[in-house]
What does this fold into?
Amino acid sequence: MKTKKSQGNGNIGIMGGTFDPIHLGHLLAAEEARERYHLERVIFVPARTPPHKEEEMLSYGEHRYMMTVIGTINNRYFSVSRIELDAPSHAVNYTVDTISRFKEIFGEGRKLFFITGADAILDLTTWKGYETLLSMCEFIAVTRPGYSLSRLKGIFDSEHSGLLSRISLLTIPGLAISSTEIRGRARQGLTIKYLTTSGVEQYILKNKLYIEAKK
Ligand code: NAP
It folds into this structure.
């Protein structure tokens, strides 16, 4: 990704996740968010080591990066950033730092939306600099039908309840698909067709991902 400031005024979506692997639910969510929030583009940011996970639990970053590139290839509004994967190896990726970098790249004129799973932000108040983070971007919390908004309301105490206005819930039926389910099916030799794109399916099979404990 270019590091100079980009031209334009459009809203930008930053789709954060581990994408282990990327699946149709992620793609549907990003596309729905793009339309609903008039996003000029959506940048997928595979996390190298999310702050709450040990690296050993994840597939190699390069595999996750490749799958994210392959999965997003057919959408001209989607791109993939290595911003977190290329961070120094000892560094933990904090979303507040990632969003600050994007603010520098795109300039103050752009409105940034951080898109991620609603369950991923239930512990948002434990994230580094979460108040600064919510001042720099709005959150789009994507979830499957039936998810109760009250779960998100519990995030903040009464003193910080105003921050809830910076988070919108976006319901995506396709999010019944999960990366965990795909990994489990691949491990058992079951089909993963139609859960992710055929390119990602082929990449998983070719590289025998998820068959052993870590690949
Ligand atoms: P996670 O805990 O693995 O995911 C929780 C749930 O959210 C899962 O059901 C997951 O489904 C779903 N999900 C995750 N990303 C999604 C996305 N982009 N779109 C739709 N559903 C999504 O969450 P994670 O992937 O590790 O973290 C999510 C993001 O939050 C990452 O960018 C991470 O760096 C950031 N984060 C930051 C901090 C911090 O700054 N302190 C702390 C925690 C997380 P799937 O498994 O199917 O994706």
